[in-house]
């Protein structure tokens, strides 16, 4: 009888454990509803700087948006994505969080002399930043070719914008920087399209057409 009672008690404990686990709601949802708007607002702010909406001396004008909204929002989206098992999405949001936060650090560091970089080396420092991120974004573009083509277009446009900003920075060409700013606005528009697709699904509608991936499994 003691053995039977022990088995019954064990069964009840297992059932109680399963009931407790079922009572805890699973983390779900779509992290892109935070990640994409965060990315878009930072892109618009950067684009406005590049096209000359603010004077060149006011390059830090975009930092409140880029650091407090874009950087923080993408970190939240990356954590959310990882929590629901979307590793690829978490990787993308995490990479772009790193880009925007490091951009903010670069501008703040150069304008406040945090890194003891003399004025003569400021251009090469910006070049180092841009080249480093060109490599990473290029890698990301190639690694995500299995995604719908809208994402490939987005990443490719970001790569093109980085190239233009790099050339404009090294050659100190305001015209090239403005073209880079225009490309930034274009990839921000692609981000808006992706957000509309996600928000349509979140509100009970259908996803917008995102195109077939360039590489099929």
State the secondary-structure class.
Answer: mainly alpha
Chain oligomer state:
single chain
Strand content: under 5%
What gross morphology would you assign? globular
Describe the structure.
The termini are far apart. The protein has one domain. The protein has 217 residues and is mainly alpha-helical. It is globular, with a radius of gyration of 23 Å. The protein is built from 7 helices and no strands. The longest helix has 29 residues, at 174-202. The chain has helices at residues 2-23, 32-50, 63-83, 87-112, 122-143, 149-170, 174-202.
Strand and helix layout:
Layout (H helix, E strand, L loop, with lengths): L1 H22 L8 H19 L12 H21 L3 H26 L9 H22 L5 H22 L3 H29 L15
List keywords for this structure.
217 residues, globular, mainly alpha
Give a quick precis of the structure:
This protein is mainly α and 217 residues long. The protein is built from seven helices and no strands.
């Amino acid at each position: 009888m003691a053995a039977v009672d022990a088995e019954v008690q064990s069964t009840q404990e297992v059932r109680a454990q399963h009931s407790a686990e079922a009572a805890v709601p699973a983390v779900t949802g779509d992290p892109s509803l935070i990640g994409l708007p965060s990315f878009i607002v930072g892109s618009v702010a950067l684009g406005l700087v590049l096209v000359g909406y603010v004077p060149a001396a006011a390059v830090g004008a975009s930092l409140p948006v880029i650091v407090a909204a874009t950087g923080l929002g993408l970190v939240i989206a990356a954590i959310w994505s990882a929590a629901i098992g979307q590793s690829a999405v978490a990787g993308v949001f995490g990479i772009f969080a790193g880009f925007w936060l490091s951009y903010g650090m670069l501008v703040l560091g150069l304008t406040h002399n945090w890194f003891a970089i003399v004025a003569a080396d400021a251009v090469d420092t910006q070049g180092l930043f841009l080249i480093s991120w060109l490599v990473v974004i290029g890698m990301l573009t190639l690694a995500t070719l299995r995604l719908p083509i809208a994402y490939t277009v987005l990443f490719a446009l970001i790569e093109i914008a980085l190239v233009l900003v790099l050339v404009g920075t090294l050659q100190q060409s305001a015209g090239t920087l403005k073209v880079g700013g225009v490309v930034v606005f274009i990839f921000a528009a692609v981000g808006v399209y992706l957000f509309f697709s996600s928000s349509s699904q979140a509100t009970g509608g259908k996803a917008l057409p995102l195109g077939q991936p360039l590489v099929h499994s």
